[in-house]
Write a structure and sequence with these properties.
Order of helices and strands: HHHHHHHHHHH
Shape: globular
Number of strands: 0
Radius of gyration: 22 Å
Largest sheet: none
Helix content: over 70%
Structural class: mainly alpha
Distance between the termini: 55 Å
Strand content: under 5%
Number of helices: 11
Number of domains: 1
């Protein structure tokens, strides 16, 4: 064999570089999205439930707040955007992972060469896509039915971007961590949904803060949903809506700090509590 032939043979035997964890994570996200959109019942419920609530509440409470051009239905639109984001991230993610663990899917994935981080990248990217679709649909309803005005300033869209990203990231990480709480797939929906429903009622989604007792407001202020809704109200209600807040301000700096803290805290909880196997499997 000549030197040229030997070099050619060595080049042929050289293995191609392995895909990175990020590349595998994006591929996993595509798989997650395909599986989600194939489940028609899940798709219909995920996107239609907040719309139904918005239409019901927006139709019942259509008056404007005294002294402002802001209607109650517009406030509900902003609040339900926050609830919709948390629903697609915290609730859906927590339930789906708990089901995958109970069915043994996580155990099988953990035994493959795929980096474990790719699984979580896939989950979070798929949640980002679904949550963004949820926001677009709710905004369309708010604009066409309740005269919600979309921001014209780039600065307000920038606020929307970081509230959305921090909110989805923190809620998704909390959903991943909370997926370890249910003992089985059967109990996952009840265990994950109950605290989320309570948070919606005390976080200004359905009931204005001015009508809540102080101790409930203090509890809601510990969790991210209240701050997500407040951030989205600043984007879609503008300065005119600030008078409806308890402090008369949207407190965007505090919104950023709380949401970032929940993202970091959610990551720590994931690293310390996440399980790839069912209880009792070691």
């Amino acid at each position: 064999m000549t030197r040229v032939d030997a070099a050619t043979a060595g080049a042929v035997r050289r293995d191609p570089p392995l895909p990175s964890a990020l590349e595998l994570g994006m591929s996993r996200a595509a798989v997650e999205l395909r599986m989600f959109f194939r489940e028609r019942d899940q798709v219909i419920f995920t996107f239609s439930f907040p719309i139904v609530l918005l239409v019901l509440f927006g139709s019942i409470f259509a008056d404007a707040y005294e002294g402002t051009p802001i209607t109650v239905s517009q406030v509900y639109t902003a609040g339900l955007i926050g609830a919709g984001v948390m629903s697609t991230s915290f609730q859906n993610l927590g339930i789906s992972i708990a089901v995958e663990r109970d069915q043994g899917t996580l155990k099988r994935l953990a035994g493959t060469p795929m980096p474990r981080s790719s699984y979580f990248i896939g989950k979070i990217v798929s949640v980002l896509v679904i949550a963004l679709l949820e926001v677009v649909i709710l905004l369309a309803v708010g604009v066409f039915l309740y005269d919600l005005e979309l921001p014209a300033e780039a600065a307000r869209w920038a606020v929307f971007a970081w509230v959305f990203l921090l909110g989805v990231s923190g809620a998704a990480l909390l959903g991943i961590a909370a997926s370890s709480l249910p003992r089985s797939a059967r109990s996952a929906t009840a265990v994950i949904t109950m605290p989320f429903v309570v948070l919606q009622f005390i976080s200004g989604v359905f009931i204005p803060f001015t009508e809540l007792p102080g101790w409930l407001i203090d509890i809601a202020s510990l969790f991210p949903l209240k701050w997500m809704c407040q951030g989205f109200r600043s984007v879609f209600l503008g300065d005119a809506g600030a008078v409806l807040e308890i402090t008369g301000s949207y407190e965007l700096t505090r919104v950023a700090l709380v949401l970032a803290a929940w993202a970091v805290g959610g990551l720590i909880l994931c690293l310390t509590t996440f399980r790839w196997k069912r209880r009792g499997e070691g």
